[in-house]
Design brief:
With 370 residues, this protein is of the alpha/beta class. Helix content is 47%, strand content 15%.
């Protein structure tokens, strides 16, 4: 298969159109303004962010223009029905222009941050550019921001994006045995939530298959249908069409991630996000907290141990001077993973802020993480 995608920086989907896209942006902005409350403390935070972006523009603009003009960055590929279901693919070499098939290359799937409200797939382009120049394929998907969706819908979007990626490994010329998932801030939270949920789901499916095989001896004796025989086996079980398995991800790297939402909600409120907004964004904060989810799964005597064994390696990265998302979020999640028996490594960067590892450090040329 060939990777058919527009080589254009235009984010307007052809099946939606310009006017409908602008209407969607206006309605979404009005609803968000209502939920955050106007006026409010968030306006001060917005002014601070604008000043920060203005200060780093001289270093950021040349890199951003290189992203726009780079023909090996396939931009705005549609992977789902929403206006936000688009992704960028950073190709070290164009598989469609090569005289012969290029070698299989490592693949990184990068989930961007943005406080679940201003996330955009271009935010990690500095990291993806470096990886691209060093022979690594990068895929950066967008997911629905609030208020278009709450956290459960965002997790479903990440799941849908991963389905697209794993169904296009051949077209991407990606090495199926060298796939790393990376999440920064909100992206780290969504990725962690999805993986823990996926571990439970896969183990429950395996139990149902075992029960079905035991109760249907004749089907087992005949070896199943021809379609089942041809289905790819992943982790010992056939993968349904369009599905992916945890065994296809070798490692999950998180950067400045929030993993326990209840204490975070109060901190976000103090920084200007109204509780009304947070209740809509996080209708079930305990049920969407990876630290609590892994603890609950560990306590499940029926499936806990085997479900947790399905998880990939975790590498948790955080700056100790992060004032947006306290470093304790990563420390506590790392401890919960380790107690559950997950292979986990925690790297703390002394004096680094929330954005240092992905923005200030790459621009300064002193990026310890990369």
């Amino acid at each position: 298969r060939r990777l058919k995608s527009p080589a254009s920086a235009n984010p307007i989907r052809s099946d939606v159109g310009f006017l409908a896209s602008m209407r969607w942006c206006f309605v979404t902005a009005v609803r968000l303004l209502y939920l955050v409350g106007t006026p409010g403390l968030w306006i001060l935070q917005l002014v601070r962010m604008v000043c920060f972006v203005t200060a780093i523009l001289p270093g950021l603009l040349p890199q951003f223009f290189s992203y726009l003009l780079n023909r090996r960055v396939r931009k705005n590929i549609v992977y789902g029905p929403s206006i936000r279901h688009q992704l960028d693919v950073y190709l070290p070499a164009d598989p469609e222009e090569a005289a012969e098939p290029p070698p299989r290359l490592p693949l990184v799937i990068f989930l961007s941050g943005g406080a679940w409200t201003i996330g955009y797939k271009v935010w990690p382009f500095l990291q993806c550019k470096v990886l691209q120049e060093n022979g690594v394929i990068c895929v950066c998907p967008d997911y629905r921001n609030f208020p278009q969706s709450g956290l459960p819908g965002m997790v479903d979007d990440v799941d849908l994006a991963l389905r697209w990626v794993f169904s296009h490994l051949e077209a991407l010329r990606a090495d199926p045995n060298n796939v790393t998932l990376v999440g920064q801030s909100a992206g780290a939270h969504l990725g962690a939530t999805l993986l823990v949920r996926k571990a439970r789901q896969e183990e429950l499916e395996a139990r149902r298959e075992e029960v079905a095989a035991t109760s249907d001896g004749s089907s087992s004796a005949s070896g199943g249908s021809a379609d089942e025989a041809r289905a790819p086996l992943l982790n010992g079980h056939a993968a349904p069409a369009g599905e992916w398995r945890l065994s296809q991800i070798q490692e999950f790297v998180t950067i400045s991630g929030p993993f326990d939402l209840p204490p975070l909600m109060e901190a976000l409120h103090q920084r200007g996000l109204h509780r009304r907004l947070l209740r809509h964004l996080m209708p079930d904060p305990e049920g969407m907290s990876p630290t609590r989810l892994i603890t609950v799964l560990r306590a499940d005597a029926a499936i806990g141990v085997k479900a947790i064994a399905r998880l990939p390696r975790f590498h948790l990265v955080h700056g100790t001077a992060d004032r947006t998302c306290d470093v304790r979020q990563t420390r506590d999640f790392g401890a919960a993973l380790r107690d559950a028996g997950v292979r986990v490594r925690v790297t703390l960067y002394e004096g680094k802020s929330h954005t240092d590892p992905i923005l200030e450090d790459p621009l300064s040329g002193n990026d310890e993480m990369m």
